[in-house]
Amino acid sequence: DFLHKQRDDLVESEKDVVKTIEEINNTAQAQFSETFEKIRGHFVRIFRTLFNPGDEADLKIEENADPLEAKIEIIAKPKGKRPSSLTQLSGGERTLTATALLFAIYLIKPAPFCILDEVDAPLDDANVQKFNKIIKKFSENSQFIIITHNKSTMTAVDVLYGVYMQEMGVSGLTPVDFRNFKEESVFEEMSAN
Fold it and tell me: In terms of pTM, does the model score above 0.90?
């Protein structure tokens, strides 16, 4: 009797665990599907901002599969191109597509700050301007730390920190706050008049 009671207890516990796992999976699938649709909408909108309003972009999830384990296809077709995969896009187009996806995910739960390291490196001058424009827009709600060698990006920022080597093995830091510079310039012009 004792062993039967113990066995029955184990069987009931197993049923409870299986039921809990099913509930967790159902909740996770529902939340993933809802979040995926939001990201998808943001991605299409941001992609068209970075490229052209009529360009085709989409995120598709593998059909008839568990959404938590399904493959996700990224579709990006700038005007005049019909690539069958992302590898057929130029380096700059791939970078802007990845940037659109990054910011689409970022919009779900924005962080107070974001670090981007050499994201603008593969971009040409026209695309760097698009990149800088979207960074300006997103920096209304978040602070961006951008590591770059691109002169256009450096001129678009509010504060620039130059890193240099004073002597072998010793780095120095030079900050330039363009916000104060612009305010002082306006003040000097007003004083002159």
Answer: no
Specify the 3-state DSSP secondary structure of 26: helix
Contact criterion met (CB below 8 Å) for 160 and 176: yes
DSSP 88: G
Q: Which two tokens stand for residue 181?
A: 């510079």
Q: Which residues contact 159 (CB under 8 A, 6 or more apart)?
A: 175, 176, 177, 178, 179
Question: Cα(76)–Cα(57) distance, rounded to whole angstroms?
Answer: 5
Per residue in 120-162, pLDDT (tens digit) is 999 999 899 999 999 999 998 899 999 999 999 998 998 889 8
Q: Which of 152, 147, 100 is nearest to 124 (CA)?
A: 152
Contact 110, 37 (CB under 8 A): no
Q: Are 42 and 104 in contact (CB under 8 A)?
A: yes
Tokens of 37: 């649709």
